[in-house]
Design a protein that fits this description.
The complex is a heterodimer of chains A (about 280) and B (about 290).
Chain A (H helix, E strand, L loop, with lengths): L5 H28 L4 H5 L11 H11 L9 H32 L5 H10 L9 H10 L6 H9 L3 H11 L3 H9 L4 H12 L1 H16 L3 H6 L8 H8 L9 H21 L1 H11 L2
Helix pairs in contact in A: 1-14, 3-14, 4-7, 4-8, 4-11, 11-14, 11-15, 13-14
Chain B lengths: L11 H27 L2 E3 L6 E3 L3 H8 L1 H33 L5 H9 L6 H11 L6 H8 L10 H29 L3 H9 L4 H30 L1 H8 L11 H10 L4 H26 L6
Antiparallel strand pairs in B: 1-2
Helix pairs in contact in B: 1-12, 2-12, 3-7, 3-9, 5-7, 5-10, 7-9, 7-10, 8-9, 9-12, 11-12
The chains are: A mainly alpha (about 280), B mainly alpha (about 290).
């Protein structure tokens, strides 16, 4: 622009680095704490430099767990979280893409009412109907199961709307061309529409995986067995009300491990993620 | 909007929508309906008999000062979280929007907290600001502040707001950056040629052009503060001390699970549903058409 931007640009760099420092500080503290001796932390004398217990603490966290209220190894919790997140992401994409296909490419009785029934579920989180949903899942004998963990969270319309919007922008000529080639509706879906939706599906996967991995209230309610609990529930159980019993290095190591998969997914697929986010939420 | 080119089939479309319809009906509408019905029922303490009491649960709820306090508290938290995270995110986005070296690096280093789960956010912050062992608490005490968020309700509320805003900054940053990059350079250059200094350009050109994004993010942030703070609150303060950090969602949880008051908890759920529906309505009405990227 017209001004000499030298100093302004310098200020911008400084402000951004301060922002990054604020954002990173809690995680830095967690990483440092996960390498230190618990007695030192409990005395309030934690150092801001890494300690020497890295391997010991992470070995205990991943394979043994705490000696307190939850004795589950974190590896098992991570597996539960992973299965749940994958089921939510893949399940939601699968049922949403076919229902969006049905709604956009066919005329059938009750098409609009069905669309509205699905549409209304938008944005009403599971938290507001938590106890009735719990009761239904219990009645269906799905407590402590992966189905119970994932199905109620699949029941919303965000993905359907995204695919519907995307299908609307697909040129009609494509369908006519496949029809001339003798393709039926399933063939068109499989050979033409699905490959075109790849980017949308990938972006959605990133968002839904993180959403699933980060679920808390729902798994907290419906898992009673320690071996079914997710990492988010496990970490809360590790913080005991009596401070003396909390093994802070293990808790912090668990926090670091709980952050790794979603943060990795975001960083690896940054471009897709950003685009997907901006498109779905609007 | 309708597609011109479509397929003819009588059963296939039903088969295509059936899985989603089934899941939505069983896991969304059925429980939502149950919540509404339950909110009109009164169950005795042992669950042996229930009676239909019309709006008694709602009346009881609104007679309870604690419920009003939870409403006021929730709105206050939402407002504080939204304002603090939006303003910090806007500042960072304006800085990152300038063409500069390392722009992608900055973006990468700023967006990842979005992916951190609320309970983990809670654990990180309670650890840093724990009264006896927190690393920051040490400095607060040295500065003469009697810091104990586990006993002091204002400090507990501050802690929740800080942690919740910390997580949300990255999300708001992304949307602001997208909004800023959608503003045509030529508009800014025209303002610059007219002699508007950077601060003035920001308030007279950028800010108004960004207002749909701001409004959209305000709604999203309020919904976030309502629901996603549950994990933060539960790991940091469990609603305490007293009820100082108990939000509406937390109250549904604690009344239903710990208090065993199913009717009252259901009535609260229904009120929450209405609030969310209104917020969603506002969002669609005012934002859907106006926000363009």
């Amino acid at each position: 622009m017209v001004e000499q931007e030298g100093i302004r640009r310098y200020v911008a760099h400084v402000i951004l680095w301060i922002g990054i420092a604020i954002v990173a500080f809690p995680v830095y503290v967690a990483i440092v704490a996960s390498t230190q001796d618990n007695a030192l932390i409990a005395n309030g004398q934690m150092s801001l430099l890494p300690g020497g217990h890295f391997f010991e603490v992470y070995y205990q966290t991943i394979f043994v767990g705490t000696s307190g209220s939850t004795r589950e190894p974190v590896a098992n919790m991570m597996l539960n979280s992973l299965v749940m997140a994958m089921l939510i992401a893949v399940g939601k994409i699968a049922i949403s893409i076919i229902s969006a296909y049905g709604i956009v490419y066919f005329r059938f009785p009750f098409r609009m009412p069905i669309f509205w029934i699905i549409f209304i579920t938008l944005m009403l989180p599971v938290e507001v109907r938590i106890y009735p949903t719990y009761k239904i899942v219990a009645d269906l004998h799905m407590l402590d199961s992966y189905a119970g963990l994932s199905l109620p969270l699949i029941a919303s319309a965000t993905a359907t709307l995204l695919f519907r919007q995307f299908f609307m922008t697909v040129p009609d000529e494509l369908l006519e061309a496949s029809r001339i080639d003798g393709a039926g509706p399933l063939r068109f879906f499989w050979d033409t529409l699905l490959p075109l939706s790849r980017t949308n599906m990938a972006a959605l996967f990133v968002i839904l995986f993180i959403l699933g991995w980060n679920q808390y209230l729902w798994p907290l309610l419906i898992t009673t067995r320690d071996d079914m609990q997710t990492i988010q529930v496990g970490i809360r159980k590790m913080i005991t009300t009596s401070d003396a019993l909390t093994e802070w290095p293990v808790v912090m190591a668990t926090a670091v491990l709980a952050m790794l998969p979603p943060v990795f997914v975001v960083l690896a697929m940054q471009k897709l993620f950003v685009r997907g986010l901006v498109e779905t939420e609007k | 909007m309708q597609k011109q080119a479509i397929f003819q089939s009588r059963l296939l479309p039903f088969a295509l929508v059936a899985p989603q319809l089934a899941i939505v009906l069983i896991f969304f509408y059925w429980p939502a309906l149950q919540a509404v019905i339950q909110s009109f029922l009164l169950q005795d303490a042992f669950g042996l008999s229930t009676s239909f009491v019309w709006f008694e649960n709602y009346v009881e709820l609104f007679k309870e000062p604690a419920y009003f306090e939870a409403i006021v508290r929730t709105f206050f938290f939402s407002f504080a979280i939204a304002v603090s995270s939006l303003s910090l995110a806007l500042l960072l986005a304006v800085m990152a929007d300038k063409p500069m070296r390392g722009g992608t690096l900055y973006r990468t280093l700023l967006i990842w907290p979005y992916a951190v789960a609320p309970p983990v956010v809670g654990v990180l912050w309670i650890f840093m600001l724990h009264p006896s062992l927190g690393v920051i608490s040490r400095y607060l005490r040295a500065a003469g502040i009697d810091w104990n968020p586990l006993l002091d309700s204002n400090q507990a509320a501050t802690l929740i707001i800080l942690a919740a805003a910390w997580k949300q900054v990255s999300y708001n940053f992304l949307f602001f950056l997208a909004g800023l990059q959608a503003i045509p350079r030529s508009v800014m250059e025209a303002a610059a040629i007219d002699g508007a200094r950077p601060m003035r350009r920001f308030w007279t050109v950028t800010f108004p052009l960004l207002s749909p994004t701001i409004f959209f993010l305000l709604v999203i942030n309020i919904v976030y503060a309502f629901f996603d703070t549950f994990g933060i609150i539960d790991t940091m303060t469990r609603g305490g001390p007293g009820k100082a950090t108990e939000t509406l969602v937390y109250k549904v949880y604690s009344d239903g699970l710990l208090g065993g008051n199913l009717g009252g908890s259901a009535a609260q759920s229904v009120i929450l549903m209405v609030i969310v529906i209104v917020l969603t309505g506002i969002q669609f009405r005012f934002v859907e058409r106006k926000v363009t990227y």
